[in-house]
Amino acid sequence: MSENNFFCRTFGALLFDMDGTIINSIAAAERVWSAWATRHGLDVASFLPTIHGVRAIETITALQLPGVDPKAEVHALVLAEIEDVEGIEAIEGAKAFLASLPPDRWAIVTSSPRELALRRLEAAGLPPPPALVTGEDVEHGKPAPDCFLLGAKRLGQKIEDCLVFEDAPAGIQAAEAAGAALVVVTTTHNHPLDTRHPTIKGYGKLTSALLRS
User: Fold this and answer.
1) d(CA 149, CA 158)
2) Which spans in 138-195 are helix H?
3) Helices in 94-145 by DSSP H: which ranges?
4) Residue among 6, 19, 15 at smallest CA distance from 146
5) How do the pLDDT tens digits run along the chain, 213 residues long?
6) What distance in Å separates the CA atoms of residue 153 and residue 34, rounded to the nearest whole number?
7) Which of 149, 138, 59 is nearest to 107 (CA)?
8) Which of 78, 99, 111, 172 is the most buried (most CB within 10 A)?
9) Which of residues 83, 105, 128 is at a domain's end?
10) Catalytic-residue membership of 17
11) What is the CATH number of the domain that holds 169?
């Protein structure tokens, strides 16, 4: 399906994941994580796909590396990611589309910590939204639904009346679990995505008409 399917329905609010959804930060993130994985003797090629869309603390904890303090590693990784923003840019049409939306009707919902999220938005030339939900704001990160439920709550909307924009499997699962409508952004995907949800490659054809009056 295409984005045209959404013009037959309107929503109370729009919830956007950040990395891979409104900005392309893959190269920067993978530079930092590749160096980290190499230091810890991990196979970089098989490890990198696991980092996208989830909180770093959960990625590192799941590895159960001996002698590794996940919180300390996350702190060091975030500092490195804040330093390396080379090549980060907004996804096609995202800046104009977000600027067209009423400020109280959309939010960014990201697994990144707040400081890193703000740095990457700045690097991409996007202003921070009034409503920003980060990985630090919830007890359980994606694929748990907590972040999207919180985003809807902060906007004063029912999650069933929200449309989520996502790109990563963990985020897609989180939106599904929350009960939101969902569109998948495929701009940064190298291979076709097998999904039952509508997909878009960019925001050029979308307008604020997605929001009900």
Assistant:
1) 8
2) 146-154, 169-178
3) 94-99, 114-123
4) 15
5) 444 556 578 999 999 999 999 999 999 999 999 999 999 999 999 999 899 888 999 999 999 999 999 999 999 999 999 999 999 999 999 999 999 999 999 999 999 999 999 999 999 999 999 999 999 999 999 999 999 999 999 999 999 999 999 999 999 999 999 999 999 999 887 666 678 899 999 999 899 999 998
6) 36
7) 149
8) 111
9) 83
10) yes
11) 3.40.50.1000
3-class SS of residue 15: strand
Tokens (6 digits) for 53: 């869309």
Q: Which of 19, 84, 146, 167 is catalytic?
A: 19
Domain assignment of residue 195, given as a range: 3-25+88-210
* Tokens 């902060």 -> residue: 154
Catalytic residue among 17, 84, 146, 167: 17
137 is catalytic: no
